[in-house]
């Protein structure tokens, strides 16, 4: 049996939960999270989520500053085409995807910052206000980052 995935679950209401899961499947409406602080597995309904972050470490590195936007990145890589995503809560994610289709509930995104603690992110489209690809992704990233200053 494969090792359980280390995940950080971000809910639409702002709640965050950390733990592991062995049954996350983007085609299913619910998966189980075994909380990192211990206790029994809890049901996680995808309709309540913003995103699921598959991480290298549940502890992360609070001192590390993730790089924002795209840094001299190509329009496409082996991980897919360039995307910038703005969530309804204002957060911006930049990365690459092979699986974004408007008719699906979600898709996987590989972070633009390869040194990030995130290995990949499952983005729930219902939590997104705007998605841009290619040069438009770069423009959205620049615009969002300038507005945040």
Topology overview:
Elements (H helix, E strand, L loop, with lengths): L4 E7 L4 E6 L8 E6 L6 E4 L3 E7 L20 E2 L2 E8 L4 E6 L8 E6 L6 E7 L3 E6 L1 H14 L1
Antiparallel strand pairs: 1-2, 1-5, 2-3, 3-4, 5-10, 6-7, 7-8, 7-11, 8-9, 9-10
Brief sketch in words of this structure:
This protein is mainly β and 149 residues long. 9% of the residues lie in helices and 44% in strands. It has 2 domains: 5-55, SH3 type barrels (Roll), CATH 2.30.30.100; 76-148, SH3 type barrels (Roll).
Account of the 3D structure:
- The chain is globular.
- The chain is built from one helix and eleven strands.
- It has two domains: 5-55, SH3 type barrels (Roll); 76-148, SH3 type barrels, CATH 2.30.30.
- It starts with a strand and ends with a helix.
- Strands 1, 2, 3, 4, 5, 6, 7, 8, 9, 10 and 11 form an eleven-stranded antiparallel beta sheet that branches.
- β3 and β4 (42-45) form a beta hairpin.
- The model has no long low-confidence stretch (mean pLDDT 87).
- The chain is mostly beta strands and 149 residues long.
- The chain has one helix at 135-148, and strands at 5-11, 16-21, 30-35, 42-45, 49-55, 76-77, 80-87, 92-97, 106-111, 118-124, 128-133.
